[in-house]
Amino acid sequence: MADKVLMKGNEAIAEAAITAGCRFYFGYPITPQTEIAAYMAKRMPKIGGTFLQAESEIAAINMVYGVASAGKRVMTSSSSPGISLKGEGISYMAGSDLPGLIVNVQRGGPGLGGIQPSQSDYFQATRGGGHGDYHLIVLAPASVQEMADLTIKGFELADKYRMMAMILADGTMGQMMEPVSLDFDIKPEPEKPWATTGTQMKRPHNIINSLSLVPEELEEQNFKRYEKYAEIAKNETMYEEYMMDDAEIAIAAFGIAARVSKNAVNEARKKGIKAGLIRPITLWPFPKEPFMKAADHVKQFISVELSMGQMIEDVELAEQCRRPVTLCNRAGGMIPSPEMVLAAIEEAAKNGGAL
Amino acid sequence: MIVFERPHALIDVPLHYCPGCTHGIVHRLVAEVIDELGIEGNTIGIAPVGCSVMAYNYFNCDMIEAAHGRAPAVATGVKRADPSKFVFTYQGDGDLASIGMAETVHAAARNENISIVFINNAIYGMTGGQMAPTSLPGQITQTSPYGRDPKLCGYPIKVCEMLSQVDGAEYLERVAVNNVKNIRNAKKAIKKAFQNQLDGKGFSLVEVISSCPTNWGLTPQNALKWIDEKMIPYYPLGVYKDRSAEEAAK
Amino acid sequence: MSTTQFLFAGFGGQGILFAGKFTAYKGLIDNKHVSWLPSYGPEMRGGTANCSVIVSDDPVGSPIVTHPDVLVAMNLPSLDRYEDAVVPGGTIFVDSTLIERKVKRTDVTVKYIPATQLASENGLTTLANMIIMGSILQATGGYNEESVNAALAKVVSARHQDLLEFNKKALDIGAKY
Description:
The structure holds 3 protein chains of 3 kinds. In chain A, the strands form 3 sheets. Chain A has a 7-stranded mixed beta sheet with strand order 3-2-4-5-7-6-13, sandwiched between helices. Chain A is built from 12 helices and 15 strands. Chain A is α/β, with parallel strands linked by helices. Helices cover 38% and strands 16% of the residues of chain B. Chain B has a 7-stranded mixed beta sheet with strand order 2-1-3-4-6-5-7, with helices on both faces. In chain B, helix 7 links the parallel strand 5 and strand 6. Chain B has one domain: Rossmann fold (3-Layer(aba) Sandwich), CATH 3.40.50.970. The radius of gyration of chain B is 17 Å and the shape is globular. Chain B is an alpha/beta fold. Chain B has helices at 23-37, 71-81, 93-99, 101-109, 150-153, 159-163, 180-198, 213-216, 220-234, 243-249, and strands at residues 43-47, 62-65, 86-92, 115-120, 171-176, 204-209, 238-242. Chain C has a 6-stranded mixed beta sheet, sandwiched between helices. By secondary structure, chain C is an alpha/beta fold. Chains in contact: A-B, A-C. The interface between A and B is large, with 40 and 36 residues. Strand 9 of chain A pairs parallel with strand 2 of chain B, so a sheet runs across the interface.
């Protein structure tokens, strides 16, 4: 592990983005993700990149829109209330098929909420967040290493599919330090012939646009976009299974909740309870297959979340309600303890997994 | 000998603007300037939300359609992505001076090296004639049916005057397109704003007092008169800031 | 296979996060899995600060330490708040200059170190944290000079390398106390 460095999750995202070739960052200060902006402010000028503190989150996402239109790798980051402000721009980017990376280091809400870790923007992220029919590729890291890895992956997927990718982290992931290796193999960026870089009088003009006043045409665009989404669901879904082979009680958890749950699964196993964990890494597309498969032998699912229960709906949809799904949650910036999750597992085991 | 032809930078398609609307004139002026400067192939234009939302279909250069009010932020991104490109926005009064006020002022404050063509016709045209941030006191619109009452909804915003107080701004001029002389001046101002960007001088904005006969409820001719009688007295024409000229004079 | 969970707690400005970082870096240099998680937000400005550090032979699960094996209490509110959370058989390090009361638990090992006093007597103001750190290293058999020096070099920022010697001196005082 000697080749690894200790880094905060927020810093790992920033450094990985630079490694991925991102030279444009626009943001606005908000806890608990400001380290990303601070890191970019320090690094970008030294490598010929652009760091700009925008006048608002709205301006920041629109600067992202501009750079993405120009065909360059670009990102912004914020935390929950700021992501809501970016919602407009995110929807426009989806409608204009523009690639880019958004980082949401979530904090408790709604409203101004608090600044402690949360996962309560799950619905917002996985359903798109703004107006209209669209999705983002939503990546949920559960370690500082994954904060870096998924940042690289996010840029690659965004360019590959010409759409936005989002890192959905939380205050814990942003603030914690862990050893991280920044040794990456970066694939070359794809050509972007659609970008508005000037015609040079050699081609018809390119237009970046989300306006389409003919309903037949707009419908067709939506159909095509959803064909692409189906392809992504088929090819890019990611998840981790932990002790699932013989599991009778299965936890569903992502990010920090999965870290806590892993401890609880280990403790449950010591007590002879066959517990396991399914950790979605892509929240959109949601990994349905492991849940469907697990429903063959699992008696009960427990969704562990830092919210009032949002992912639980996707778990139920994924396993088509074949087994009961219960919720083990804290909210408002609180984090479930391993003891709390263990108690939920024991309760489920006591009931024989049946409700 | 060709005496008159369509500028190359303007695509040969029918415009959707109402009869008597001066958007067409300003489009032409912008396109002529692009031609004269020989920058079409290196230009990225940014359309607003408002009547000129479909400007991307009219200009021959690469075009981006921005969200309402956000064109200066989008332009910032495009320009920062490649400072060698020429970037202009084309925005109306609701877009620039209401919903996009923050983006406008901060792009000026940063002295972003972009050029803005700002159409002030004192009305929201696209949505059918509602009160704009630049509607005159007493002006009747769909959302000020008894006339704009400053006590109720405040005073019009004078964009050039306001931005002249922003240190970052390079060049601000207000022109009109209601007669031949004014149109000639308008073109000169647009050309200067564009040349400023090519010279790396920074944020340049030309406010164009324009007409909206449809929503003003006037004939095209009377609308042009209304500009002289009502608009220009409230929004005096002229150069509000020319930093380079001021510095050269010192 | 062993895991040690540390909880460092005290006032903002006492070097709580720094001591935690040192512990994490030392773990990394010793080829362990580590995590470091600070409290964050307004409470950091002059209020209480704490950080969770886990050093383990196995990958770290939850990075949040709720039941520390080692508690470092550098002020009274921290001892009041976390004393009961320490695992039976765990260790509590107390800065006895700032905390007058004794630990009530009888099922834990307690080290009282007048760290703040020792620091000021030795011209090491602001390094009470590292004096306690020295005591921890001594107690846990981790005082390997090579890895200690390597970890220090990582956490003491490049422009403050002149402070390395002071840190080493503080660790030494703590280890010998």
